[in-house]
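Final paragraph of the annual report: two paired records, presented back to back.
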Amino acid sequence: MRENGCKSEASRRSFLDVLLGASILGWLGSIVYPVLRYLKPLPQTGPTGPTRLTREEMAKLEQSQFVIILVNGQRVIVLESASEQVLAFSAKCTHEGCTVTYLPGQSVIWCPCHDGRFDLSGRVLSGPPPQPLPKYVVQRQPDGGILVAAQGGVT
């Protein structure tokens, strides 16, 4: 009778040891995995090459004079200037990486985080941004569509 109690206690103890070990491994994994993803992010996937604005994006461009789209996984601001010229720049401020917006009344691209301002050539007008905004190539299609690509991407 005594022998059965010992076996039962030993199996209970080994079960608890396995459960504790699995819990510790799970906890370590939940700490290590995010750190590894931060140090080595997954590659961005998505379409590459020129991006054509959708009907919804075209409507937003006409309504608010700018739209933010993805081109090769990067945010790009496409805007229509007062002279109806379509321009495209990286929508990521060169200071802290905030998303910029277009102020059509002032004809400037504005970063709301630290009041950085860029002209319609992407050059810094004021604020802390250290570099101009990277420019993208814009091409109007015969059917009225708009293609946007990184420099050297539209043929």
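The closing record of the year follows.
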Amino acid sequence: MMGTEVIGKIIGISKSIEYSTPRTLIDPLIKEFDIQTDVCASRLNYKLPKYFTKEDNALSLEWHGNCWMNPPFDRNLGKWVKKAHYESQTTTGTKVCLFPVRSNTNWWNEVCPDAELRFINGEVNFNDEPRGLWWPMCIMIFGDKAKIGHFFTINYRSARSALKQKESE
């Protein structure tokens, strides 16, 4: 298991930095942006038929077309976001990225002016965990379909509630 997990009677923290995006968050984005490639996936958590794994080393590849990125949440996060930004400047398509808000970093300040931002209201439940990750999260969009300079919010709480209600019917 990744993310938060129950260990005995306390909640512990996983040692993994890979978080599988919930379908309630990614599916509407795939449809809206016609996303074709998942650039940060594994054979267990890919969201699209075309995907890059750690072994493919997506930081060294060109990202053509409309791409989804949910990178590892580690010290290389800035490299991933800067790569998505760079690819939006040098290739065609839209790069749609999910990651923790890091507005205190230099890389955020460098890429933000060229992006559309969607802040997520609610805890994102990665890996289909019942409890969500408490970090503030965002979707940053670069490229052809980005509404550069605009920001919005995604009411993830409502999306999760609607899904839970639908599943219980």
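The chain has one domain: 17-168. This concludes the annual technical report; the extension proposal builds directly on these records.
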